[in-house]
Amino acid sequence: MSKTxxxxxxxxxxxxxxxxxxxxxxxxxxxxxxxxxxxxxEYPYGTDHWLAxxxxxxxxxxxxxxxxxxxxxxxxxxxxxxxxxxxxGLIERGVIGKLRWEGGLYINLRPIRLYDSRWCPLKDxxxxxxxxxxxxxxxxxxxxxxxxxxxxxxxNEIASQPMRYTRAGTERVIRYAFELAMTRPxxxxxxxxxxxxxxxxxxxxxVFAEVAKEYPEVKTDHAYIDAACMWMVKNPEWxxxxxxxxxxxDIITDLGAMVQGGMGVxxxxxxxxxxxxxxxxxxGSMPKATGKNTANPVATIxxxxxxxxxxxxxxxxxxxxxxxxxxxQSPKVKGLKAGLHSTTEWGDMVxxxxxxxxxxxxxxxxx
Length: 367
Ligand code: IPM
Ligand code: MG
What we know:
Blueprint (H helix, E strand, L loop, with lengths): L3 E9 L3 H19 L2 E7 L3 H6 L11 H7 L4 E6 L9 H12 L5 E7 L17 E7 L10 E3 L7 E3 L6 H16 L5 E6 L8 H11 L6 E6 H10 L6 E4 L1 H14 L7 E5 L5 E5 L16 H14 L2 H16 L13 H24 L1
Parallel strand pairs: 1-2, 1-3, 3-12, 5-10, 8-9, 8-10
Antiparallel strand pairs: 4-5, 4-11, 6-7, 11-12
Helix pairs in contact: 1-9, 1-10, 1-11, 5-6, 7-8, 9-10, 10-11
The site of 3-isopropylmalic acid has 5 residues, from α4.
């Protein structure tokens, strides 16, 4: 009997619904061809829903009951959250933040892979030079604690929000990164922090050194975040797996997304290993492009690929990745920027490529 996965969907704001629509076409194709079933539960949360239910006067962000139900799924596919009609950060923190922090999704996995030299803004860099994974801690740091304002608006105002790290939180992300490094040919792991200025990062220095003793095969290295940004642009080929804190991981993965060709392709997994996890494109909601069918859904399709991998559908996951890679290497792709191909056309092209991949493997089997 084939497996049935329970998938929750939060299409969210802006271009979210459009890119998710194409991602779900790929999921459907995968289910049909790799023999699994799935059910979808669509949740309406995002800025429109918040406004429709009252906005500032008690609008719903992510009610606890729905939040608990969403976590009973095997995975959640998220489009994008963020809209200028809501106060800055309110819906982001209430939907993505809540899922990550209260849902215990402690790994934010962000692969950065260049599929074709044409998409790289760096001179003389090719796909061999850009193939890395950033492991971003996802439940701690400056993100999770509420800000504190003393004398708000006054001349002596003080605003603060702690960068706080626990041993348990630090150790589990570092351990995950070592395990991941072990699965990769180069077995390299870089710790990125700012321990020279933020002395609280000493916890990363110490825990990394301790865990490293258990993985003698992994070649370890260290860089401060400022230098890591510089190296990523100058020598991306030096990166294999890197582990870093939540805030730095957020920043450096936007840089990484550019190195791999832009926000149109960069995907991420918010993972609690073996448990309910969330998959999403790294990009935002692009409010101005809403409903225009111009957004590039490849990042969401890559997120579906990561979700398939997480669910254990390894063949389907590999096929999606291979299809995206082959498509982005093909001359028919004019560019990755929004509007060069419509959102629907991107979905069509990925599905065609998946079909082609199936036909090629069938031909190889019968020859
Ligand atoms: C990301 C985003 C979020 C973050 C925002 C939307 C809160 O930039 O997933 O990288 O900062 O984590
Ligand atoms: Mg970000």
